[in-house]
Each structure stands twice: as C-alpha cells, then as structure tokens.
Write a structure and sequence with these properties.
heterodimer, A: 116 residues, mainly beta, seven-stranded mixed β-sheet, four-stranded antiparallel β-sheet, 11 strands, globular, B: six-stranded mixed β-sheet
Chain lengths: 116, 113
C-alpha cells in the first residue's frame, strides 16, 4: 500500500457542488499538507496541519476548508466548487525530525479535479 | 510574484549528455533548497537537497549547486538517461518555516535515446 493515499484519483463535479478530497497516511508523520498544481504555477500551498489540533492557512486557502480527523487523516473540502478550482491536488506529509535529513515531503499520487 | 522561478518550462537532452536545470529565488531568507521529480500520474518524489551552508551536494548522477550571492541553484544530471524524463520542481524554505515549502513552476525534461 502507498504511504500517502489520496481518494478519489479523479473527479468531475459541477459548479456549486460541495466536494471532499481525502488523504490518509501510514508514515506516522505528524505534519500534513494540501497543495494544488496548476500549469506554469507549480505547487501552491492551500492548508497545512502540524498536529490534530493545529490547522493553518496557506497562500491560497480561499474557497477551501480542511479537517484533520486523526493524525493519519487530512481532508480538503470545496464548499461550493467553481471552475477555476480545476487542478491537480496533492496531499503531502513530513516528519518534524526529518528536515536536515534530506527527506522533505512524501506526496500522494494526486487527485485530478475538474469543475464544469 | 513567484519567489522560486524556473524560467525554462522544458528541456531536451540527448541520452548520455549532461542535463542542467536552473532555478532562481528572490527571498534571501531561504536557506534550504530541494529538488523534486514528478512522473505523470504520480506525486512528486524527493530527489536531492542542499543547505545554504554548502555550495554543492552530490548524490550519484545528481549534483545540486548553490550560488547564494546570485540567488541561483542548478541541478546537474550526468549522464542523462531516458528514465530521467520527468518534471523537476525546485523548492525552497527558510529557517522560520521549514515546513512551508515554496515550489517553482517546474521544468519538463525529455531525455532522447
């Protein structure tokens, strides 16, 4: 099984619908992140969480919300989806002790979301 | 304004030759830099990193060079192999927020057999 699992892998939804993207990890990492990838813009941070009771906004949090249900689970919600939220979404984890040990982030395989 | 820039969206290199991917940054607070590699339909994977106290880090065929005065780093792949064909993201963080990494837009490398 993958260390970081994202569901669904692909999703098409209509404008105005609520949608949730889920992420679970078996790495035992305390820190989890949601990024979106757009062509020419790289990966941009949406939200991050350093533990279950800690939620922080990233650079592009408007229109999104998150929930850290457990150390291993971090979900991203679009309350009312709009077409410019069409993107590739990645969940990532890191270990507070890993920086400096060249480990960085562990990413999931991504969720391709299309809002029509 | 992007803090991490990769001005070449794509690069093609012959197998066996050197690939050089460039990255520039604007934030002088950045002190830790990473390169990630991404294949289609997969998430990015960590490739190599460098701390600002160094100017070079090497791992097998991959070497990253850091020029702090120019705010520039580069990734060298020698020799390039077809399996290296992927998108490469440059990323940076600073000591005040090591876990908030800023990514560049990526460079798509094609290694031609």
């Amino acid at each position: 099984d993958a260390d970081v699992t994202q569901t669904p892998r692909n999703r098409i939804t209509k404008t105005g619908k609520r949608i949730m993207l889920e992420c679970s990890q078996t790495k035992g990492h305390d820190r989890m992140y949601w990024y979106r990838q757009d062509p020419g813009l790289g990966l941009r941070l949406i939200y991050y969480s350093f533990d279950v009771k800690d939620i922080n906004k990233g650079e592009i949090s408007d229109g999104y919300s998150v929930s850290r249900q457990a150390q291993a689970k971090f979900s991203l919600s679009l309350e009312s989806a709009i077409p410019n939220q069409t993107a590739l979404y990645f969940c990532a984890t890191s270990d507070a002790g890993s920086w400096g040990s060249n480990y960085g982030y562990t990413f999931g395989s991504g969720t391709r979301l299309t809002v029509v | 304004d992007q803090q991490v820039k990769q001005n070449s969206p794509s690069l093609s290199v012959q197998e066996g030759r050197i690939s050089i991917l460039n990255c520039d940054y604007t934030n002088s607070m950045f002190d830790y830099f990473l390169w990630y590699k991404k294949y289609p339909a997969e998430g990015p994977t960590f490739l190599i990193s460098i701390s600002s106290i160094k100017d070079k880090n090497e791992d097998g065929r991959f070497t990253v060079f850091l020029n702090k005065s120019a705010k520039h780093l580069s990734l060298h792949i020698v020799p390039s192999q077809p399996g290296d064909s992927a998108v490469y993201f440059c990323a940076a963080s600073d000591r005040t927020s090591y876990d908030k990494v800023i990514f560049g837009p990526g460079t798509s490398l094609s290694v031609i057999p």
